[in-house]
């Protein structure tokens, strides 16, 4: 098992259901799962995530997170 | 430069790397004069960008006034571009301002933006952003991206073919949303960043957001800079050399 920390703002935060602080949810998961699979595991539909990033780099939903990684999720941001 | 212009721009002319002539000779297409476009066009006009072409099909509604700072209640029901042109012309009569009350589409974008060397995004939906992005990539025209949602705003400078484009960031179109909740100061903050990026690019100032995405979360007071690399498999921009 490993632990990752997912963060989200705006309405996506409500879907993420943070438990560490206002923005962050701690997720225990098996190693080797993609971010997309982890989102489904916690009941968050990946369709609500426009893009994700970690340590200043964009991360594909098909990438495999590392133990302890912090990943920020962004919903579609389309207003003006 | 005329004496009045020298006086008007006095406080910026002394800046190292500032090039007023390059701003004066530039033409910028402002796609949308809502929350983002109100802020960006106000500062682009004040800075002395020679031509601002404003494009927006909408009329002002009361619910626009929490963020669209070019307007007042006197403008309710009137076409935004006309009101914006009047406001900006009063601010800076030295520049040329054109107002197009048109909805941007694949069919008309080339005609609407013809002759402008830079696009500033003031749109309120992803579908039209994809049209702008596609035009920017096809014509290799720099595109100052901005978007807002809730407490969050995004900004970047897309420079085809060097940087990634919107399709690299979001390969599939997110689901369409209804009216988007937004804190009024967020499009203001992002619009000003867009104006700064536009002026820096036009003047050749280094250190822009090209290849990087700014994510500003005002609730968390957090500014993230994320590398926005070109996707070698992007169906749109990967084929452009």
In percent, how much strand structure appears in the residues of chain A? 25-35%
Uncertain regions spanning at least 5 consecutive residues of chain B: none
Strand order of the largest sheet of chain A: 2-1-5-3-4
Strands of chain A, total number: 5
How many domains is the backbone of chain A divided into? 1
Largest interface: A-B, 20 and 41 residues
CATH class (first level) name of chain B: Alpha Beta
Provide the residue-averaged pLDDT of chain A. 95
Nearest-integer average pLDDT of chain B: 96
* Structural domain tally of chain B: 1
**Percentage of β-strand residues of chain B:** 15-25%
**Biggest sheet layout of chain A:** 5 strands, mixed
The main β sheet of chain B shows up as:
8 strands, mixed
CATH level-3 fold name of chain B: Rossmann fold
Which structural class do you get from the secondary structure elements of chain B?
A: alpha/beta
Cα end-to-end separation of chain B: 38 Å
**How would you name the oligomeric state of the polypeptide chains in this document?**
heterodimer
CATH architecture descriptor name of chain B: 3-Layer(aba) Sandwich
Q: What would CATH call the class of chain A?
A: Alpha Beta
Percent range of helical residues of chain B: 25-40%
SSE order of chain B: HHHEHEHEHEHEEHHEE
Q: What does this molecule look like?
A:
- Chain A is of the alpha+beta class and 80 residues long.
- Chain A has a single domain, classed as Beta-grasp domain (Ubiquitin-like (UB roll)).
- Helix content of chain A is 18%, strand content 31%.
- Chain A contains 2 helices and 5 strands.
- Chain A has a 5-stranded mixed sheet with strand order 2-1-5-3-4.
- The mean pLDDT of chain A is 95.
- Chain B has a single domain, classed as NAD(P)-binding Rossmann-like Domain (Rossmann fold).
- The longest helix of chain B has 19 residues.
- Chain B is built from 9 helices and 8 strands.
- By secondary structure, chain B is α/β, with parallel strands linked by helices.
- Chains A and B meet through loops of A and helix 4, strand 5, strand 6, strand 7 and strand 8 of B.
